[in-house]
Amino acid sequence: MTTPAASPASSTPAEGTPPEGTPPEGTPPEGTPPEGTPPEGTPPAEGTPAPSGAPESYQPFEISKEFEIDETQHKSISEYFKEKNLTQADAQGHVAFFEKTVSEMAEKAHKDDVKARETWASEVQADKELGGDTFKENLAIANKTINSIGDPAKDKDGNPILDKMGKPMTTLGMFLAKTGLGNHPEMVRFAYRVGKLLSPDSLDGAGGGAAPVVEKTPGEILFPEQGKK
Asked: Are 96 and 138 within one domain?
């Protein structure tokens, strides 16, 4: 006796079955962030690892006023930091390190400059020609020379610039004061000797009487052969 074949299973879904591809009940809509994700823009919680790598653009760096950088410098520095793939925090650390280093170098240079000026001034006072009992008189002659050669120094409003004694300064005197070279023994010696040549007392005649005073320009004194044929 032949056994009848089983009927094929019906392909019709049971009543109440959701269509194929439908997500399980309770699944959030596509694109919804996982539960517990903080809203966009919320700062990272304490202990969260900092982002790695360079940002799209660096924020202005924190730096003191005397080391302020303009937009061009900021762009150049940012390009360098991007090449190194530094984060904003790492880049700020580099800026702080550079600022500290440059500040220390500038402070050292200033101290060295002050020390050099003080050393030169001491050497002038100890110099056999310039120092001694006539130091103040010799220095006055040197200062007079400096203030006799060069254009009058003026401020931005056209007013004369005065020294500590209230006397008008020259552009040469301003330069020597600013650079500290006015304290150098050889500069003081040069100004002193020129001042002695300009002084009527140095023009005494061989006979003991005073020779006629012939006015000369500083150029004629410093370069007596110039203009002669």
From this structure: no
